[in-house]
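Lest this sound abstract, we let one protein speak, letters for residues, whole numbers for local backbone shapes, and leave readers to judge:
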Amino acid sequence: MRLYRLLCLIIFLLVASACNLSQQPPTDESIPLPDNQSGKPIVEISSPKSGDEFVVGTQIFVTAQASDTVGVTRVQLLANNQPVKTVSSESPAGQKSFDLLLDYTPRAQGAVALQIVAYRGAIASDPVEVDINIRATQTQVTATSQSVPDVPVIDPNDPTCRALINAGLNVRSGPGTVYDKLTVLGAGTVVPIIGRTGPNDWWQIRYGLTVGWVSAPFTSVYGICSAVPVVPTPPTPTPLGGAPTWTPQPTFTPRPQATNTPGTPDLVITSIAGATDVVLADAPTQTYSITVTNTGSGPSGTFVNVFTGADGVEVDLGTVSNLNAGESIVLTKSVTFTATGSFTLKARADSGNQVTEVSEVNNNASLVVSVT
């Protein structure tokens, strides 16, 4: 009996030892994290490079890529901390990869810090920056910029109205996201515009043998566009599985032309706010807020704004992608006064006359500043 108990004890100890050996020992090795450890969108600027030089009034094309594991919903280009171009994803959920070609035209010479920030909803990427120099004339340019492939040469006096695609963009069978996709145009593609919607929020374009529609806020417009006609909107596609229905066409009755056509925007600078009495020795640099309001009845589309400071030089105030009826946007500009006297600050909305408005004579505002 004693021998039997001893054998049982030995067998028990062997089994317990084997169980312990089968367990994995603890490890201090950390679990690999994904490349994007910050959880923010990522931005990379391909061109221009820091140190490149350009001439006042010459268009600069910024090529960049934005990415996010969930989806980039918006990308913004800033020049010296002022927004000059904003492109939003056509999809509310965003897109994981965003190739971009954004344009910026400097209005004054000097150093310019170009930044791109990508957003996933309210989450912003770390800004990526390149520092360039703007010269008054071509003869002052000493740094040779590298040529960039796939960047178009734009003639602003082109008799054909054309759209430059700022980001990968769907071409659709009608002016809206409910219409079928026909093809996709890459950033940097230039296509002729052959028609438009009344509010100028969609362009009808021709690409090879394809005629379709692209969303205007994703484009920059060049050439002579005053004769582009408003074209009829195609019927909305019937959802799959739904029974087609027939809607009688209404009888057309001519009406007198209204002064304010429904759907027409009207851009007004409603205020320039800031100090009007400045003491040069105390605070020579002041910040002014310029409020642009769409007082019309339709969305504006994309438009450019300019600002004239104390030195009388007109500078870029930023590009607004879209301003709906009744909406306002506040743009800011810093002004450094270098002498005493009376100075008139001016601002002008839609400086390139890109928007068809109710009135073209109310886009200006001014503010007189006394400097002692």
